[in-house]
Amino acid sequence: xxxxRNSSVCLRRGAWGLLLLAVLQGGCDESLPPRSEPVEFLGAxxxxxxxxxxxxxxYPGIPSWGEIHxxxxxxxxxxxxxxxxVLQESALIRAQLKLRWIADTAQQRLLTFGASDLDNWRMLRxxxxxxxxxxxxxxxxxxDQRTNSGTPFWDLVRLREMKTSKGVIYYESDSVRLVAEGWxxxxxxxxxxxxxxxxxxxxxxxxxxxxxxxxxxxxxxPAGVRGGxxxxx
Length: 233
Hints:
Blueprint: E1 2-3, E2 9-14, E3 17-22, E4 42-47, E5 53-57, E6 65-68, E7 75-81, E8 86-101, E9 108-114, E10 124-125, E11 128-131, E12 136-141, E13 159-163, E14 169-173, E15 176-187, E16 193-202, E17 204-207
Parallel strand pairs: 3-8, 5-17
Antiparallel strand pairs: 1-2, 2-3, 4-7, 5-6, 7-12, 8-9, 8-11, 8-15, 10-11, 13-14, 14-17, 15-16
């Protein structure tokens, strides 16, 4: 094993690559040439939706909206390997992200991530996480697009009636401008990396799953929901 004195990391050469490992307390007995260790070998990032978030009416006759279509609206936080060697360490996978509506920062949402949100589970073997060169450990969170108090973010802005080429009516929100700030940790002996603040925009499209153009519905919005709580069309 090749060790570096007065450093928190140790480089081990194996048959299949180079691993960056945490060093146990104590010195190194081998006499080795000096090696320059990276100051920052992990970078933090945030991935946000670039397409509208599709919201479906959940069940016939119930005046509520909120079933998210697939993975639209999912958020991703990642820890990227900035080093030129493979990183491997005991895993501690967790992250936290706070979202604030720029127009009224009291409207917030706190999201927490854990090992179950890891996108590529093959990176985790037992309690050991391995991140290859130019790779990232990415955590993906699908969430309900609501504030901590349960208010839908699309209910905070104006909604406009739209129609597809097939005559299906839906409603599209004005831009919901958010700022995100948080942190991510993936290795037990490596401190969390800060995320943000990062500004981004979400747009919502509200669609009635049970609408048929032949039904002649004048609107897909149940009574009392049109245009949001305090922002009518």
